[in-house]
Design goal:
Largest sheet: 3 strands, antiparallel
CATH topology of one domain: Arc Repressor Mutant, subunit A
CATH architecture of one domain: Orthogonal Bundle
Distance between the termini: 50 Å
Number of strands: 3
Helix content: 40-55%
Order of helices and strands: HEHHEEHH
Strand content: 5-15%
CATH superfamily of one domain: Winged helix-like DNA-binding domain superfamily/Winged helix DNA-binding domain
Radius of gyration: 25 Å
Number of helices: 5
Strand order of the largest sheet: 1-3-2
Protein name: Restriction system protein Mrr-like N-terminal domain-containing protein
Mean pLDDT: 79
Length: 140
């Protein structure tokens, strides 16, 4: 998890971009334990601005027991979250529409349907129920 990106994302969610330290710590703990998705997302956002330093660049201010997101911080966060623009075709190598693609991409296998995914879960549930019943029978 990228600490600095997480701070920016937390502060932008508060009114006027200001949060006291207790709120920041609580939100940080929630996001830090939320799983791999958050860590991957902050890593991806941070890669857009590799030399990010929220304090020395003036993106966050420390004021009266908390931190406040500056307008520059909002701009940087918007830049990090913006989708990259599609690249324009190069004029040096014109595309010939009659030519075949050099590399063909294999189709992806179909995703498991809900019934297929539920089957192992149902089997585990049945095994646990049977184990509980055996434990009750052995206990009495």
């Amino acid at each position: 998890m990228n600490f600095q990106v997480t701070v920016l994302k937390i502060l932008v969610s508060y009114p006027d971009g200001f949060a006291v330290m207790e709120d920041l710590k609580r939100d940080m703990a929630i996001l830090a334990t939320s799983g791999r998705d958050w860590a991957d997302r902050t890593r991806r956002l941070a890669s857009r601005v590799p030399d990010l330093d929220i304090f020395s660049q003036g993106l966050v201010e420390r004021i009266s027991g908390g931190w406040r997101l500056t307008s520059k911080g909002r701009d940087i966060l918007e830049f990090m979250e913006a989708r990259p623009a599609p690249r324009e075709p190069s004029l040096a190598s014109p595309v010939n529409e009659t030519s075949q693609p050099v590399l063909e991409i294999a189709p992806l296998p179909p995703l498991p349907q809900p019934a297929d995914r539920a089957k192992p879960r149902r089997e585990r549930r049945e095994r646990r129920r049977e184990a509980r019943e055996r434990a009750r029978a052995n206990a009495s």
